[in-house]
Fold this protein.
Amino acid sequence: MASSTSQSQRATVFIAASEADANLYYATKFIAPDPFIYLEIKGERILVMSDLEMDRAKSQSSVDRVLSYSEVEGRAKTQGIAEPGTVEVVHILLREAGITQILVPANFPYGHAVKFQSLGYQLHPKREPFYEQRVVKTAEEVRYIEAAQRATEQAVAAAHDMLRQASIEKDQLWFDGMPLTSERVKKLINVTLMECDCVAQHTIVAAGEQACDPHNEGSGPLPAHRSIIFDVFPRSATNRYFADMSRTVVRGTPSLELKRLYQTVLDAQEEATTKVKDGADGKRIHQGICTRFEKAGYKTGLVNGRMQGYFHGTGHGVGLDIHEMPRISRTGSRLQEGHVVTVEPGLYYPGLGAVRIEDMVLVTKDGCRNLTNFPKTFELG
């Protein structure tokens, strides 16, 4: 363990845009589209902001002190640095505090790292989770996630109603006299989410063969009688927390083989959910689903150059990032009370179709609380 002296000589340094960096937003509660400087020096949390953002940072951020970039830049020039850049501005502040070592996130910009090293600093990159406390959600964070989930459910309900109202003509879905497309359904979902102050990207409405590629967002006319995967994961525009839900439906009459595929995934998903609790091993939960699918006759492997079966993880943490720690997967993580994780097994077979069912749950001491209220209905009629 490092001594208290060495800890006092180490500062945390971020140079990033908080709009894209969840750790930086978590530390500052300040959203900006352009990179800025955040420092933790001897227990004090400091922002160094451009003149453009100074007032907003002072009123909106949660840090202890906001400094003017141009003022520190001026000090650097008086100390003989002719053309100070971002690294030199940080250097002035670290040198004044007697700091020789800096803790940085693993994705810290390489160019900045080289400059800091040339100035004599020792860098200590830290892998995720950078802030361990981010992994365990507070009651307030759970409320934020649940609010985003309610918006997700409202949007998917609207989309499913559209499918119910569609007519079937020559094995295709029609709506308002024209083929019903993935794009039209996704637009309905995304606009409904916007009306709920949520923003969605890469919403998935994928049917038939497209659904057999788990991250295919879907395009073109939607077929009848075949499975359609909905995977919707918006972010709240007000508090930045995500939700995540997947449902698989059919409009029309699914084959018996497709019905069996759905029931197999549903049973596995619900069984895995019962195994989520404080102290549970995510690797074991995932392996249990793999074994269950194999015993049911659903093999996983490469067939004709394409993966089929079950070839993704069972779950992941959700919060300020859509994918964060912990993991329920072949690598796995130990689950802990306060984690919010998905449980989302799936099976994918070109020619037959695909099924994925996903709920989002809060890990508790003795089990979990499902944050997802939306029904698991396969046949929409």
Notes: Residues 1-5 have pLDDT under 50 and may be disordered. The longest helix spans residues 139-165. The chain has two domains: 4-134, 139-370. Residues 139-370 form a domain with the Creatine Amidinohydrolase fold (CATH 3.90.230.10).
